[in-house]
Amino acid sequence: MKFIVGLSSLALVSLSSVSPCLAANQSLSPSADQSLPNATKTIQVAGLFDSVNEAINTVDREQRRAAQRAARERAKQERLERRENAARARQQRTEAYQKQQQERAAAVAAKREQERKYFESLTPEQQKQYIAQQRARQEEAAKVIFTILGAGMGGGNSAASPERDQNAEWEKYNEEQNYARLRREIEAQNRENIRLK
Q1: What is the sign, positive or negative, of the torsion defined by CA atoms of 138, 139, 140, 141?
Q2: Is 146 exposed, middle or buried (0-12, 13-18, 19+ CB in 10 A)?
Q3: Domain map of the chain by residue range?
Q4: Which of 9, 62, 79, 89 is deepest in the core (most CB within 10 A)?
């Protein structure tokens, strides 16, 4: 019983960071178990300190591991939140872009419809003048584009005749396409009007 009391006081003193040698000397007083030799008593005390140190080291290791796990989990959570925020921002940008595209498409469609109605309201002679005006605008735009492209490539006017031929062909093609498109729209509208009557 005295040996157990001595060991508990030794453990108490050891855990309270007092010199373990002092605690060992006090706990192994002559009144303790006399049947054990002094070497055995010292080994028992040293073994006790080793087990106490191992327990303390084990607790420290577990605390460090728990802290590391918690830090890894926090870092993982922060990465997930950043990814989610980036995904949300990307989705918002995509939705805004799609909305702008839809608004532009609606504006273009409204403008085309307005032009079509205007064209239908014209007399055949006025329609020809309107087409001529549209062709002139397209030619002017093509000239500006080709001038910019020619200046950007450093070509200047050295190869003007092939470009003029290409411009003329391109403009003729565009005029024919616009005229054909307008004709088809007018014919479709006329058929629709006849069918509705």
Answers
A1: positive
A2: middle
A3: 122-197
A4: 9
